[in-house]
């Protein structure tokens, strides 16, 4: 199947539009749409918020009568089922669209090729696969949630030039500068949960809320603390703000009932996990967050938690802020603990790596290779049945 440079340009624009929905549409996918007639763009749209009009419908409304005989470019297969909105295929067909170009097929079971087939059967020219790699990267969190039932895991840390995330005494505020912290607030503003270990919560006493420049965050993240024994200081800022911003404390079977009741009395939701090992409990936690339809979670430390997630190959995206400072010290922690790898050839390499300078700091981010199955998790279907 041969696509033209013109096709490529319009699909890239549709992908650019789709990005505008990040943080607002999850657990639905980000989708963009461009309608072109006689070489001119006559309509554009994107999925702007969960439960709102789909990208194709928005673009068709913008195009109006100009949609007759036009080509529709969309970053994901048009849906063909009744969810929170009606089927996009039912909007495309009467509009008189002549050709549909989709970046990729939607793996959602109630769509999964059926939308494309419905359009083909009515005589439309339908093509799939233009910039599919970019479309899959854009919607990696949606695809992972569908395939595994687990959220997309974003790991974020700040470290010194010698690879330390805290001093030998455990202090880390502030390794990076204000420009780096502004980026962190932007990251927090588009995720469903912010996760830290007990020691990080204890040493830093963070609030873990999103305070992005220029306004209200797209989402209000649940603050998640992993504490095997359900220990969190009563004067913690997390506890003090628990009735204003949700806090979920995850504990193990060793937690005492009185500690659980004390936290619950302060407005903290406590989630006991019964697995014996930290590794197993981490996987249970991801399952639990996925069952709540959380699509993106941001993990901010510490090294034990990062290490367990890396050992489980559950980190999907990495954001690192490197400050031109030296801490030294054998007891000063590095970012990632856990078992690690035994051979250099087994090292995990970042993909799509990008970096920039933020004040005195270097900001580096990229993706880790996906090792997720392509099939859809059956356990997730009831929870997503009415989402798309």
Descriptive overview:
By secondary structure, the protein is of the alpha/beta class. The chain contains 13 helices and 14 strands. The strands form two sheets. The protein has a nine-stranded mixed beta sheet with strand order 10-9-8-7-11-6-12-14-13. Helix 4 links the parallel strand 4 and strand 5. The longest helix has 14 residues. The radius of gyration is 23 Å and the shape is elongated.
Shape: elongated
In N-to-C order, the SSE pattern is: HEEHEHEHEHHEHEHEHEHEHEHEEEH
Q: Count the helices. How many?
A: 13
The CA-CA distance between the termini, in Å, is: 28 Å
Which residues sit in consecutive blocks of at least 5 with pLDDT less than 50?
Answer: 372-387
In total, the number of strands is 14
Q: What is the average of the pLDDT values?
A: 90
Strand order of the largest sheet: 10-9-8-7-11-6-12-14-13
Q: What Rg is obtained from the alpha carbons, in whole angstroms?
A: 23 Å
Level of helix content?
25-40%
**Helix/strand/pairing category:** alpha/beta
Taking the sheet with the most strands, its summary is: 9 strands, mixed
Residue share in β-strands: 15-25%
